[in-house]
UniProtKB/TrEMBL annotation:
This is PRC-barrel domain protein. InterPro entries: PRC-brl_dom, PRC_barrel-like_sf. It comes from Pseudogemmobacter humi. Residues 21-69 form the PRC-barrel domain. Gene3D superfamilies: PRC-barrel domain. Pfam families: PRC (PF05239).
Length: 98
């Protein structure tokens, strides 16, 4: 996927309503997880990404700062994130419990 034409999200768009269920792609441009929920808004925002599993079953929730993601909209307006993390690296992070 060519992300060069995708529009970065503004800080005010970093909220639960916009980010929940957004797919996250790794360095190799493969889907590595989905944002399940958001902590905070704007500049101080963390996201919980469900990694692995199928349809949310068997997935591991991990916490990342939005600063570790490039969050953007594609040509159709769909929100997604891109990170340099791999699926394997995310799986090694501690499980997020809330």
């Amino acid at each position: 996927m060519d992300h060069s034409r995708h529009i970065p999200l503004d800080r005010q768009e970093l909220n639960e309503a916009i980010l929940t269920d957004a797919p996250v792609y790794g360095a190799d441009d493969r889907k590595i997880g989905t944002i399940s929920h958001v902590h905070g808004v704007g500049a101080v925002t963390d996201v919980v990404i469900d990694v692995g599993g199928f349809l949310g079953i068997g997935s591991k929730p991990v916490l990342l700062s939005v600063d570790q993601l490039n969050l953007m909209r594609d040509e159709d307006g769909n929100v997604h994130g891109v990170t340099s993390w791999t699926k394997e690296q995310l799986k090694e992070l501690p499980e997020h419990r809330h």
